[in-house]
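Moderator note: this is an archived Q&A kept for reference. The question asked for a predicted structure of one protein chain; the sequence and the answer are reproduced below.
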Amino acid sequence: MNREVVRRPRQSGAHAALPALPDNLWRQQLRRRLLRWFARHARELPWRPSPGLYATWVSEIMLQQTQVATVVPYYRRFLARFPDVRALAAADEQEVLRHWEGLGYYRRARHLHAAARQVVAQHQGCLPTSLEQWQTLPGIGRYTAGAILSIALDQRHPILEANTVRLLSRLVALTADPGTGSSQEFLWGFAAALLPWRRCGDFNQALMELGSTLCTPRAPGCSRCPLATLCPTCTRGLQDQIPRRKPRAASVAVHEAAVIVQRADGRVLLRRCQAGERWEGLWDFPRVELSAAADRVTAAELCGKVAALTGIVIDAPQPLATFRHGVTHHRITLTCYQAAGRGRGTRRSAVRWVALDDLAAYPLPVTGRRISRLLQEDRAERA
């Protein structure tokens, strides 16, 4: 099979490792095989039957750095509460974050909400229909804009994200680092060259589907792949080498403390996380980073940190529970304490005394929600 009739000019330096683009016959075979496979094996996902602009937009934002199985229930709940862009724009940010709670990467939710308000304010609630207009909205880049328009309107735009970068790199045996500027330019051009003139949305979804389900980072399902005989990485047995992997960042151990500060009337103290903090926009029990493991932290140190953060004076805190979890490359040990507290806090500290029954209305980090459940269970046991 003639794969490399279309030649690229000889280049030097960092561009020398870029392969030639496959010829037109190869591309035609790929389109046919891929679309036939997608028609038979596409997963039934709630945003696929009626892929309008709004539903596609929400799904694409949720799917960024998040697995499909995790997204599905969040998508259904989100669309039930915010069925269109006007409903989303009219909502309070706290409610939007509450419906996003547990999905992670909360900046996505804040950008989605801000973009909805921009669409209503500047476009009378009509979602854009051009790549350029979409990219003026918060949180929308070239990939997301192209995916929305190709899937919802069948416009002819290439896409490039983690799954398709891996798939396309293997389809041309790209040995260069796919993250460099020259490789990215090459892959965008390759993605554009592959696009059919019709069914662009199906084709782009098929690329992502194949990359997600078969052309996986490790142990790809080449024996079931419809493109295996077209793929030089497969035929040469280079799946573990392509695409070139970046070395993993070393994990960092972090010790934190969360303090349940409770007043005499039973209300607990919540603090809204500020711009630049890990859980920006969410509410949380006062949380501080420790300079050492919890067993080496003094009560005076904890009291001082909570007072500096919230303006609230607390009694000596008592340990309650320990949670371990990961955020990006951080391994976090979170020790939870209880303490009596008093005061109103400072305006700058953004704190609020909240009844236990009202905690469900506040968007909390996953560990914050676990602490909330501990409090509810403790109250039930005491009743």
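Archived answer notes: The chain is about 40% helix and 15% strand.
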